[in-house]
C-alpha cells in the first residue's frame, strides 16, 4: 500500500533511500525522485524483494529467537568434528543430511504408502552438484546462501536456510558444514546443493550455534533434553591423525580437513570475502585454500570451478563493475603481473614452474587449481534491487559452472548419480578420518562403487585388471597380448556351447563380429579409466598414477604429490591399439578353429573337444604366464573373481571350488563329472590345471529345472529368535528327523533370523545345535558393561559408548560360533562345505535408508534389479565378508550394539530390521531373480518371533504413517526397534501387505496353501535383550505349538514339495487320441540314489 495516498491498487514500489512505499503517482510526485542529485540512488524496488533482503540482512537479535533458529538449523548439519570434553580424540561425524535431502526430493518416492515403500521403483538417477561456500568468519557465506534460497522460494514453499549471524557479532555463526537444497533445481535431473562451511580464521572461538546447543545439553528441562537427542549420527570415526593440540583444534579441521572433502567433490567453490581493501588478498586465500587440498586426492575427474563473491562492496563503484564478465576481466587484467610480485603468488607459481607449467599471469596460476573463475560483487546494505540482480547473477554463474562440470564428468564417465555420490562421499569420510597425508584415489573407489558391467566385455576388463594387479610392472601392450589368446579361446568355447549351426564351415571373420563391441568396450574402458599415465620423472624414477579420465592436476605420485605438469601420456590407447587387439584375437581364433576342426574330423565330439582345447592349450598356460612365480607357491589363488567366471569370461561366478576359484554353471558342466542329471563331481581346478590336480573331490548340486522353489524367511526379534528355532524343531520332528534345511532352496533372515539362517544353511547345523549356539550367543552378547546397570551413571556410560552392550563381546561370541576365517562366499574351504543352501541376510546402511542383502551365492544377472535393496557382492576376495561378519552386520541393532564397519569394503552396516524386520519382500525379489522361470513358489514359509493376541493393529496405526520418502520410514523403524508391540505389528503388517500383493481375488485360495506364516501367540512380548525371559518364552512356545495342528500339515506340504517330475516323452495314441506322458519322479532333498523312477500315464 502507498504510504502517501494509502492506495493499494496498481504497482507499488519501495524506495531504498526513503525507506517508504509509493504508488506510481506518488513516486513521481516526490521531489527527490523527479530530479537526480548527488548521493544515494533512489531505486524502484518490488516491496516483496525489499522485505526479503531486509529480513536476511537484519536478522533477529533476541537471544531466545536466535536459539530457536539455531535449534531448527541443527537438522541441516551435514558433517563435522566433535571434541569430547574428556580430552578424548576428536571424532568425525556424518549426520546423514545428504541422504535425507535426496530421499525427500526423490521424484519416485512421494508420500508412499506402507506397501509402496517396498515396490521395485527405479534407481534415483539424478546427478547432484555440490556448491561449497567458504571464506572468512563473518564474510557473509550464510547470508548469500539464504538469499539464494529465499529468492527462489515462492508462496507457501518452505526450504531450510542458514542462520545469519547478528550484525557486529565477533563470534562465528554456525559450526561444521551444513547442507541446503536449491529450490529451483530440487526435482531436476541435476539438483544443486549448497554446502555452508564453518568460517576460516575463526580460531578456537566457539560458534554461536554450538554455544546454544551446549546450553541445551546442560539444561535439565525435559524439552531441552528432547531437543538435544534430536540429532542423528549415521557415521562416526575417531580422527587418527589428531594426536596433538594443534591437530585437535577447531581451526585445524576448518583449514585442513574440510578443504580436502569440499575441494574433492564440489563442482563449484564460492569463496566469500567481505569488502576486502586489497583485492589480491582474495586470490591469496583462494590459492592457499586449494593448495591445502589439491594433492590429497588422485584421479580427480574434474577440478572445481571458482566463484569469488566480494560481499558488501561499496555502492558507489563504477556501474560496469556490477557485471560479472566485465568485473572478472578487469580485475584479472589489473592483477595479471602480481604473479611475479606477490610473495604468495610467487611461491605457488614457482611450485608449478618447477613442474614444467608455464605461469605468466595470475589467471594461469588460478587455472592450476580451478577449471574457471568468475568474480561477482554484492552490494552493501541499502540497495535491495541491486542485491536481487546480483544474487541472480551469482545463481546463473553457479548454475552454468555446475552444468559445465557435469558435462566434463560425463565425458570421462564419472558423472555420479545419487547412490554413487553417496558411496564415494562415505569412502572419503572414512579415508580422511584415517589420514590427511595419503590421497583419496577415485579409481580405487570406483572399483567398490561403480561395478564393471557383468557381460563379456566387462569380464575381459576384470581379468585384465587382475593381471595388472599381479604384475604391476607389466605394460598394457603385453597384458592385452596375453589376453588376446584367452579371449579368442573363450569366443571359440562360447560358439561351441551355443552350437552355432555350421560352425565348422564358418570362418573367424563370420564369428568375431558378434563379439567385437565387447572387445572395444573392454579396451576403451581399460585405457580411459584404469591404465595409469606412463610419464616417469627422469630424476626420481617416480611414475604418474593418474589415469586418462582423472588427469586434471598434472602428474601425481602415489602419495598425491604433483611432481610435474603436463597431460596424460601413454603409448597405449584405444585409438592406437584397438585394431591390433582385434587382429590378434582374430588370428588366435583362426588357429583355434583349425585345431577344433582337426580334432572333430578325428571323431571327437564338439561338446568335449572345445572345452578340452580351451583348458589344455589356453587356460592353464594363460594362468601360469599371468601369475608370478612367487604367487604360484602361495596357498591362495591369485587370479580370482567373485563376480565373473574367469574360466570362460561369459558366465557369472556361481560355484566356488576348494582352491578359491569360482565357476559358472556352464563350466561346471564342461569340466565336472556328471553323477546324475543335476549333480557333478569336480576334481581339481580347470583354471589352475596341474597345480591343483590333487585337490579334494568337490560335489556340486544344481537346482532341478522341473523342481519347485521353496522359500523360508525368518523375522528379527533379538532373544525371541528362540521362537523361530522352536517352530523349526517341531517341523523337523514332524518330518521324521530329516534336517529341516533340506526342504528349502532359499533362506532369508533378518537380525536374529539371520543368525538362524546362517547357522542352518551355511554352517549346516541341526536345529538342536542352532538352539544351543543361539542361547550361548545371547547370553554372551547381552551382558552389560561394568557400571552400566547403575542408576543415572549407566545412561551416561551407554551414551558415551553409543551402545548398550559391548562390541568386543558380541564379536567374540560370533567368531566362536561361526568360525573366525570362513568366508560367506568363496575362499578356500573344506569339502563338507560344498553346495550350500542359498542363504541371505539383510543389513541396513548406516544412514538407515538402504537395505543391503548379504548372501552366500551370486544373484542372477537380471536386467530388472530391485532398487529397494542392494545385493552386496564384492569383486575381490579381500573385500568379502566372513560369515561372522555377516552375522554381526545383520544384528547391529541401533543403541544396543555399535554399527559394524567392514574395513576391507569400506561399508558400515546396522541391523536389517530397520527396513525389513520381516524380509518377505526381499526374499520374493531374490526368488524371482534366481529362478525367473518359476512364476510362483511351491512353498513360501514365513516364521515370526512371536506375537500377542492382545495387540491390535490400530495400536500403532498412527505411527505407521510416513511423511515422505524412505528416510522418514527409517526413522520410524528406529522407534520400532525400541517398542516391542510396534515391532510385532510391523512384521504382521509386512506379511499381510505382501500376501495381498501376490494373492488376487481369483488366486487367493490357491495362494493361501502356498504362502504360509507361523507366528505363535506368546502372550507378553519380551524385549530384544531380555535374555532372562528366554527360557520361559521357549516353554510358552512349546506349549503353543503342541496344540497347533498346522505344523503337521506344513510338514506334509514340505514333503510333497520335495517331489518333482522330469518329463521324458509325450506321445499321442493312434487309437483313442489319448496322450501318453512318460517321465521320472524324483525327490529333491534326498541323495540321488533315493529317487523313485516311475513311468506315469
UniProtKB/TrEMBL annotation:
Gene3D superfamilies referenced in this protein's UniProt entry, alphabetically: Cytosolic phospholipase A2 catalytic domain
Sequence motif GXSXG, residues: 749-753
Source taxon at top rank: Eukaryota
Motif position, DGA/G: 911-913
Residue ranges of every copy of the PNPLA domain listed in the record: 712-924
One of the GO BP terms on file: lipid catabolic process
GO terms of molecular function: calcium-independent phospholipase A2 activity; transferase activity; zinc ion binding
Record-given protein name: Acyl transferase/acyl hydrolase/lysophospholipase
Organism encoding this protein: Pseudomassariella vexata
